[in-house]
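Mods, move this if it's the wrong board.
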Amino acid sequence: MAVGESLWPHIYPVAGVRLGVAAAGVKYRDRNDVVLLEIKDGSSVAGVFTQNTFCAAPVTIAKQLLKEKTPRFFIINSGNANACTGRQGMEAAWETMQAVADISGESADRVLPFSTGVIGEPLPCGKISAAVPEAFNSLSVEGWEAAARTIMTTDTRPKAASVEVDVDGEVITITGIAKGSGMIRPNMATMLAYIATDAAISPDVLGTISRLAANRSFNRITIDGDTSTNDACMLIATGQSSAPALKCHGGEYFEKIAAAIVAVYQSLAQEVVRDGEGATKFVTVNVSGGQSQTESLQVAYSVAHSPLVKTALFASDPNWGRIVAAIGYAGIEGLDANGVRVSLDDVEIVRDGGRSPNYTEEAGQAVFNQSQFAINIDLGRGEASETIWTSDLSHEYVTINAEYRS
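Not the wrong board. Structure tokens:
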């Protein structure tokens, strides 16, 4: 179950990046579950990771190694998170990294590990290591779709975005894949995502763009309010385009490239929401009129995380009292309820502290019957605004997560 059509986009290969896949039998039978991603030497790599204290072994390793060296390979597995596995989990991750080093001739500390799947189970590193040669031999610039399918867990469809952008007369390519449909909440809010561009971008500038893009995309979505132990979002710049190198923060050139990368991130993040576990609705929550971005986000997430709001979304029930209740308990100091206005798309439902005189149940029902719509909230107390994307909470969500380990 997912919202909207499942259309695999046209993929523009990124010069300097190759991907290969293999079947290791980590959890799934008769499907690929290991991805090897190769990065051309001389590239820049940046990333953001989960802020969950119980971060997985591969997250701990990847964060540390990324500070020390530019990676040449990513080794990614689905079916097992290698989280809350202690010293054994760290050793298991290093074993898979060494398997990549052995076949590639690179040192193991230039291989970053990533895992997604069930928490608390030992990583079958022997199976993954044995599958590395198959993945290495299948490396290809055309490997994006196979990789996107391989990293899926409860996802119902692969997720990708790919664009070519004219920047001052030169074309740069940006392509990315992501997986995630549950255990999704900011800090940061996807399970795994890998985005690459052939633009030449210095490491410090790439780090800035990586954080900026994540904050405007994966840190603006929520499915269920749960922050995963394994979240990682990696950005690669190979420098293989003929476009001039981006070495400075700010300015028109920076803004053009950053905007293009942010657009790809947002497309992937929204696909995660559309494929939320059991999702039948894709809902945009716009909050304006805040005194700060922080309080605007606070209200947006209060609405998006409310089980009562989310179940009303699933039922296509325009029970707008649940929305205003969530606004009211968001904890905004000094919020004047009489100054708050709320609408569903263009249908005003609340103003002056009560139901809008223009609102009709029929109009509200017409909006809630749609699979995609917006909840617009104006706090009436400032100039700050924020937008997040969320989904409903369905019977299927409970079923998927109740049976996740079976």
